[in-house]
Amino acid sequence: xxxxxxxxxxxxxxxxxxxxxxxxxxxxxxxxxxxxxxxxxxxxxxxxxxxxxxxxxxxxxxxxxxxxxxxxxxxxxxxxxxxxxxxxxxxxxxxxxxxxxxxxxxxx
Length: 108
Prior knowledge:
The chain is an alpha/beta fold and 108 residues long. The protein has one domain (5-102). Helix content is 27%, strand content 31%. The protein is built from two helices and five strands. It has helices spanning 38-51, 64-78, and strands at residues 5-11, 24-30, 57-59, 80-87, 92-99. A five-stranded mixed β-sheet has the order 2-1-3-4-5. Helix 2 (64-78) links the parallel strand 3 and strand 4 (80-87). Helix 1 packs across helix 2 (64-78). The radius of gyration is 14 Å and the shape is globular. The model has no long low-confidence stretch (mean pLDDT 90).
């Protein structure tokens, strides 16, 4: 079994060391990104297919749009996704698992 990774769609220069307890930090892109580039979207999906494994974490940081694309693609591929969200009050990351059947359906 591969060690878990913490995938950043866009590394915006924040301090991510508190997320390292969940796995190795793996950024797709560091710094600014042109979200209007169709090539960038195709490259992101290909990169996710090559680098994101079931059980890895998506740390939601950087471009909201690119994170939404990544979230959607990973959830469709694996049926679920592990997400890390920063908790300001605790100054740490919390993990959540979102299953595909929890979104977009009758989940009252």
